[in-house]
Every structure is written in structure tokens, then in C-alpha cells.
Design a protein that fits this description.
8 helices; eight-stranded mixed beta sheet; Deoxyribonuclease I, Chain A; six-stranded mixed beta sheet; alpha+beta
Length: 330
């Protein structure tokens, strides 16, 4: 397994440019095709150990499912994890057979201080120190079967978050993958945006922070991209209409779930997946865009990892997996 150790890379150059276990069933996966990219995004609810108990068996089961799928030859080629804060979540990266592992910024990887520090921009009672330390890293991982040609991240600055979310070093991850599906690489973005109610901050401030994170993503996309096809996925916390509208209009990429449901002749949902689970009742999303030479076509979508273990769900989120047929121009 190759770990991409780029914890010191914070996109400085880019900023300058823009200033009870159940078996895995066969029907849970789409037909394996040579030209199909399988991408899973999953918020695994790996909160720091001090905030939760009894998680290791759940992380272990998530890893076991991915190993079972690899044995069956149906594993996601790319896995994007969010909320992998607890060190024990590393079992997923370490034991599931992904050769290329890129971890997002840790707790000590800092960003520049924004115009207004988060404790003053939200509520001072969140921390007594004028410059409090993060208690967790970004919780982000990109796991890939394919070589990572380039990998970078940008942590959100102090005026780009709100409330308790600022205690973790949330960020945007970028990776450029060389896949066997096309001569051109495919760009992948993973991120976890500011929450709403759990941030415990005033609504206007939380919404403002979310929009600033969207603005940063747009700037970073402009700096990182080189005309290649792209998929961005993660927990964008866009269930609220205002958030989704601002995000989708500014990022200006195609919502894979919407495209799938509007092209049912080419795209199907996994058994048990409901339409609203990929449209309205979710903060987990996948967006994409073609290049001039490579077209990405969603052909299958699923909300998976639905089983329970000892009566507990594996996470407070479901996995969101999309399979993209990769079409190249002759």
C-alpha cells in the first residue's frame, strides 16, 4: 500500500493563483464492466474516541464488507471517507487492499487565520483561548486502486467554518488518478462541509460559512483542474435548499443522482435504494463533469452499507456509490 504523504501541501501556490453482520448480496453491485469506474463516498461517523464508544466493531465491519467485495471483484475502485477522525478508523485504509491511500490534513496542519477568528465569528463560549487548537484532523481519506498522479489539499481557514465544526480541521482534498479506462486522468475531489444544527452556531453564520466553503471549492477547482473529467463527492451538507442551490449553481457540475434518475434507460438504482435518498434526504452527494475527450455516464447508484450490527447502524450516514461508464472519443 502506498501512502501519499502530503500533509505539508496546503495549496499555497494555488491560493496565489486565486488569492449483526449480514452477507453482501450480489444485487448490491452493478454488472462489472471493463470501462466502468466505481466510486463510493461514505461518512463513517468516526468521531474522536472521547465523544463516542463502541465504534471499533463497526469500523471493522465496514472494512470487512470492502474486503468481501474485493474478493468478489466488485469493490469500489475509489473510496472517499469522511469523519474518519478516530485513529481506529484506519483499519479501513489499512486492511481493504487499496494500494494508494491519501489522507487529508491532520489536527496540526493549520491554515492561515481568516479575517475573523471562528470563536469571535460564532460564539466565544466555544473556547476560552483566543486561538484554540483543533481537536481533530480533517477526517478525510481517498483510497484508490489506481495510481495517484497528483494529490493536494486545502484546509478551511478560520473564517470559513462556524461553531463546533471549527474544532476539526475540515478541508478539500484533490487527487488526480490514472485509470485504465482512458488516456486522460480523472480528477477526484473529497470534502466535508460545515454542518447545520450540530454546529451549534447561529443559522446566518453557519450558512455564511457554508457559502465561503463553496466559494473556496470553486477557486480551488479553477486552480487544480487541467481540462480532465472530474468527480467531486462527499458530505457537502446540502440537504437545505438554500445550501444546495448556492452550491450547485456555483460549482456548476452535474448532480449524478439527478442525471441517473432522468436517464433511467441507462442508469438504475440498486435494490432498496429510494429516489429521495439520492436527491433530497441526504447531505451526501456526487457531482461530475466530462472533458472534451472523456465522457462520464452514471449507470448505477446506491445507498449502501445499510445493515446493522448488534442493532446498531454502521454509521449515521449510508454509503453513496455511483458507477460511471467511461466513454472516450475515437
Amino acid at each position: 500500500m502506498m501512502h501519499i504523504n502530503l500533509l505539508k501541501v496546503t495549496f499555497v501556490a494555488a491560493c496565489a493563483l486565486v488569492a449483526g453482520a449480514q452477507p453482501v448480496l450480489a444485487e448490491q453491485t452493478s454488472p462489472d464492466e471493463a470501462s466502468v469506474l466505481r466510486l463510493l463516498s461514505y461518512n463513517i461517523n468516526g468521531l474522536p474516541k472521547t465523544l463516542t464508544k463502541g465504534k471499533p466493531p463497526l469500523f471493522n465491519r465496514i472494512a470487512e464488507i470492502l474486503r468481501e467485495r474485493r474478493t468478489a471483484g466488485t469493490q469500489p475502485h475509489v473510496v472517499l471517507l469522511q469523519e474518519a477522525f478516530d485513529k481506529r478508523t484506519s483499519v479501513i485504509a489499512d486492511t481493504t487492499g487499496y494500494k494508494y491511500v491519501y489522507k487529508g490534513p491532520g489536527r496540526r496542519d493549520t491554515s492561515r487565520k481568516g479575517r475573523a477568528h471562528w470563536t469571535q465569528a460564532t460564539r466565544k463560549a466555544y473556547a476560552l483561548r483566543p486561538d484554540p487548537q483543533k481537536i481533530a484532523g480533517s477526517g478525510l481519506y481517498i483510497l484508490s486502486d489506481f495510481p495517484i498522479m497528483d494529490a493536494r489539499y486545502k484546509a478551511f481557514d478560520s473564517d470559513e467554518c462556524a461553531g463546533f465544526d471549527c474544532l476539526s480541521n475540515k478541508a478539500i482534498q484533490f487527487a488526480r488518478l490514472q485509470t485504465p479506462f482512458a488516456d486522460q486522468p480523472i480528477d477526484i475531489v473529497n470534502s466535508h462541509f460545515n454542518s447545520r444544527g450540530s454546529a451549534k452556531a447561529p443559522g446566518k453564520i453557519v450558512l455564511k460559512a457554508h457559502r465561503k466553503q463553496t466559494d473556496l471549492l470553486v477557486k480551488m477547482l479553477g486552480a487544480f483542474r487541467k481540462g480532465y473529467p472530474i468527480v467531486i463527492a462527499g458530505d457537502f451538507n446540502t440537504k437545505q435548499d438554500k445550501r444546495y442551490t448556492y452550491f450547485s449553481e456555483n460549482v456548476n457540475l452535474m448532480d449524478a443522482g439527478k442525471v441517473c434518475l432522468s436517464n433511467k434507460a441507462f442508469c438504475s438504482l440498486a435494490a432498496g435504494t429510494k429516489e429521495d435518498e439520492i436527491l433530497y434526504r441526504t447531505n451526501d452527494k456526487q457531482f461530475y463533469e466530462d472533458s472534451a475527450a472523456v465522457r462520464l455516464q452514471p449507470i448505477w447508484a446506491a445507498r449502501n452499507f445499510t445493515e446493522t450490527l448488534d442493532g446498531k447502524p454502521l454509521s449515521d450516514h449510508l454509503g453513496y456509490e455511483v458507477h460511471y461508464r467511461v466513454l472516450t472519443s475515437e
